[in-house]
Write a structure and sequence with these properties.
The chain is an all-alpha fold. The protein has a single domain, classed as Orthogonal Bundle (MetI-like fold). It holds the Pfam family BPD_transp_1. Belongs to the binding-protein-dependent transport system permease family. InterPro entries: MetI-like, MetI-like_sf. It is found in: Cell membrane.
Length: 263
C-alpha cells in the first residue's frame, strides 16, 4: 500500500501534468483560431526550439541570462537580507531602511534599466544591476517582517539565560524567517529572470533578451515563442535546484514541530 506522502506526490504530479496539458490545448487552439502571425503552433515552436538548441545558439544565451539573473539576485538579495535581519533586530536600522527599500520596490524596473544604460552603457552589467536593485527590496521586506514576527517571550528568555548570539540567530531568528523568506525567494527568483530578459532586450546584451530582440527584428514569432519557452524552462530548473531543498527542509521542520506538539 502506497504511503500518504507518495500518494500526495503522485497526485501533485498528475495535476501538474493536467495543467500543462490544458495549457498546451489552449495554445494550440489559439494558434488555430488566430493563425501563425499571432500565435505559432506547438509544432512550429518546437521546431524553433530544436533549431536553437542544435545550432548552438541557445546554450550560450541561456547561460548569459542565468548569470545575469542569478548573479544579480544573489548580490541584491544578500544586501537586502542582511539589512532586513539587522533592521528587525535594531530598531533605528529598520526605521531608516524601510522607506528606502519601499521606494526602491515601487520604482518600475524599466526605470532602472534606463538608468543602468546611462550609468554602465549597453551590456550585461546593466542587466545584472537591474536585477540586483529589483531583488534587494523583496528580500529586505521579507526578512524585516520575519525577524519582527519572532516570539518576544522566547527572545526575552534567551537574553535572560545569556544564550550566545549565534544560538539566538539559529534557534530564534532563522526559524522566524523561514515562513517569510521562502515565498520571497521564489518571487525574487522569478522577477530576476523576467527583469534580466527585459534588460537584455533593451540594452542589447547577450542572452535570451538578445535572442528575443533578433527574433523581433526578423518578425519570427516561432523563434520568439521558442526563446520564451526556453527561458521559462531554465527558470523552473533553477527553482527546482535552488528552492526545492529549502521547501523540503521547511516541510520536515514543520513535521517535527507538529510531532512534538502531538507528543
Amino acid at each position: 500500500m502506497a504511503r500518504p506522502g507518495v500518494r500526495g506526490a503522485a497526485a501533485r504530479a498528475a495535476w501538474t501534468a493536467a495543467g500543462l496539458g490544458l495549457l498546451g490545448l489552449a495554445w494550440q487552439w489559439g494558434a488555430t483560431a488566430f493563425g501563425p502571425f499571432v500565435l505559432p503552433s506547438l509544432r512550429d515552436t518546437g521546431q524553433a526550439i530544436v533549431h536553437l538548441v542544435v545550432s548552438g545558439v541557445a546554450g550560450p544565451a541561456l547561460l548569459a541570462t542565468l548569470v545575469h539573473a542569478l548573479g544579480g539576485c544573489l548580490a541584491g538579495g544578500a544586501v537586502g537580507l542582511a539589512l532586513g535581519i539587522a533592521g528587525g533586530l535594531v530598531l533605528p536600522v529598520g526605521a531608516m531602511s524601510r522607506p528606502v527599500f519601499t521606494a526602491l520596490l515601487g520604482t518600475p524596473p524599466i526605470a532602472w534599466v534606463v538608468l543602468a544604460l546611462l550609468w554602465f552603457g549597453p551590456g550585461g552589467t546593466a542587466a545584472g544591476f537591474t536585477v540586483a536593485i529589483t531583488a534587494a527590496p523583496i528580500l529586505f521586506l521579507a526578512a524585516l517582517e520575519g525577524v519582527g514576527s519572532r516570539d518576544p517571550a522566547l527572545t526575552e528568555m534567551a537574553l535572560l539565560y545569556r544564550a550566545p548570539p549565534l544560538q539566538r540567530l539559529t534557534d530564534l531568528v532563522l526559524p522566524a524567517l523561514a515562513d517569510f523568506l521562502l515565498p520571497a525567494l521564489a518571487t525574487a527568483l522569478a522577477f530576476s529572470f523576467k527583469v534580466a530578459v527585459m534588460a537584455e532586450v533593451l540594452s542589447g546584451a547577450d542572452g535570451v533578451g538578445g535572442g528575443l530582440a533578433t527574433a523581433r527584428s526578423h518578425f519570427d514569432l516561432a523563434a520568439t515563442m521558442a526563446w520564451i519557452v526556453l527561458a521559462v524552462v531554465v527558470l523552473l530548473v533553477a527553482d527546482a535546484l535552488l528552492l526545492a531543498p529549502l521547501r523540503g527542509w521547511r516541510a520536515s521542520r514543520e513535521g517535527r514541530v507538529g510531532a512534538r506538539a502531538e507528543a
